[in-house]
Specification:
By secondary structure, this protein is an alpha/beta fold. The protein is 36% helix and 15% strand. A hairpin with a 2-residue loop joins strand 12 and strand 13. The longest helix has 31 residues. The N and C termini lie far apart (52 Å).
Length: 428
């Protein structure tokens, strides 16, 4: 059996490596630099360890589409971002679908793992494949499975970057298919690598289930962010309130913070787009997005207040900004709200240095990125902003960060509650 996985990112790469323990897998990506790294067993996201490459005996990485011909399974795992106007950007998905259509054979199964709004698989991708391949789409309305055609399924990814506990092989895998025969084939594919399989009633249901997973988290975090603003005015510490409320058995634990990345901060817009297209404006989801998108401005306003209170002039200050990836323990800076806050500080003409020990970049927006505390000047910063704290550096930071602050008029901003309450001038 020949399997093609298109997109060697957070989702596609670990999936391809797992599948290749049993079957022949082509790991395809348009990025030639990435492919060259993968051939050397290097994953620039640091999500896959070298030992996992060594276990994958039947994988071939390529950016040459000629190798994709006549695969039994095509799995699409490309990014689905949003445009500047917050609407879905399906360009990469459509390009991947065209690629599949040019290489598909009769009886092949096409599976989407990319996050989409309900109806995308069958209303957008299937017509593209039908038009280019000249094959029929075999679904519940088809009379036979042995016709000259192809099957589809939507099997949403549940990858959580930086999380080594909830990996693909340990989670419940949701699958769906265009008919029962397709479901059987897809189930056989995934059951060898996933701990548990859940069969969705339809492709559209699976698409909807995926899109609400992150939408729910987004709304819950937005609620806590709004509560943190209220408690700030009431002079109550939000994290102490959450700890107290958390003693109740059915209290859901969420914490305030900036919501970035390419899941929680993106997926709700796919759902609201589809909702509007059928004539319903989703007020709660959009309100949550507005709150979370505005958190960097809220934090900045509080920093400005502290500067005025301590008579510190931005143009004469030095700020150490700790952590710029979009979340803890990942190298990725795409859609990082920390970088958004850095840009706002930069516009105020403050001198900003970035400390991030795991990201791959040496500079962000022309600001130098330092990889260790030892490379910084001691007693030189008016302000330290703790934003994203990677696990393996927590102890070092807590022990030594004070050495880098000036003795007078210092400010500590602790966005995510890294330090004890008494050690910070502001925290959410």
């Amino acid at each position: 059996m020949k399997i093609v996985v298109i997109g060697m990112g957070y989702v596609g790469l670990p999936l391809a490596l797992l599948l290749s323990k049993k079957d022949n897998v082509i790991g395809y990506d348009i990025n030639s630099k990435k492919i060259n790294q993968l051939k050397k067993n290097i994953d620039d996201t640091n999500e896959v360890e070298k030992k996992n490459f060594n276990k994958a005996k039947k994988i071939f990485f390529t950016n040459d589409s000629s190798y994709l011909k006549n695969a039994d399974f095509f799995i699409i795992a490309v990014p689905t971002p949003i445009k500047k106007n917050k609407e879905p950007d399906l360009r990469l998905l459509k390009k991947a679908t065209i690629l599949v259509a040019k290489n598909i054979k009769s009886q092949s199964v096409v599976i989407l793992e990319s996050t989409v709004f309900p109806g995308t698989t069958e209303n957008i991708c299937v017509p593209i494949i039908k038009r280019i391949s000249k094959l029929e789409y075999i679904n519940k309305n088809s009379f036979k499975n042995d016709v000259k055609g192809f099957y589809c399924g939507f099997c949403p990814e549940r990858v959580n970057p930086g999380d080594k506990e909830h990996t693909i092989d340990k989670i419940t895998k949701v699958i769906s298919g265009s008919n029962q025969y397709a479901i059987k084939k897809i189930n056989n594919l995934y059951k060898s690598i996933c701990k548990k399989i859940y069969i969705s009633s339809s492709i559209k249901t699976a698409e909807a289930a995926k899109i609400i997973e992150n939408t729910q988290r987004d709304i819950n975090i937005a609620l806590i962010n709004e509560l943190s603003k209220i408690f700030k005015l009431l002079k109550i510490d939000t994290r102490e309130v959450l700890a107290t409320a958390g003693t109740k058995w059915n209290f859901s634990k969420y914490f305030p913070g900036m919501v970035g990345g390419h899941c929680i901060g993106v997926d709700p817009y796919y759902l609201t787009y589809k909702s509007k297209s059928v004539g319903f404006k989703p007020n709660v989801i959009l309100a949550g997005r507005k709150i979370n998108d505005g958190m960097s401005n809220y934090i900045l306003k509080n920093i400005i207040k502290l500067y005025k209170k301590k008579n510190i002039i931005f143009t004469k200050s030095r700020i150490l900004f700790v952590g710029c990836s979009f979340k803890e323990n990942v190298t990725d800076t795409r859609n990082s709200k920390s970088i958004e806050l850095v840009e706002k500080l930069n516009k105020l003409k403050a001198k900003v240095d970035i400390l991030d020990q795991v990201i791959n970049k040496d500079k962000i927006k022309d600001i130098k990125v330092f990889k260790s505390l030892k490379s910084l000047d001691k007693n030189s910063y008016d302000t330290i902003i703790f934003s994203v704290i990677h696990d393996k550096f927590k102890n070092t930071l807590k022990k030594n960060y004070k050495e880098y602050l000036k003795n007078k008029k210092k400010i500590i901003v602790d966005i995510n509650g890294f330090l004890p309450k008494s050690d910070s001038d502001f925290r959410l």
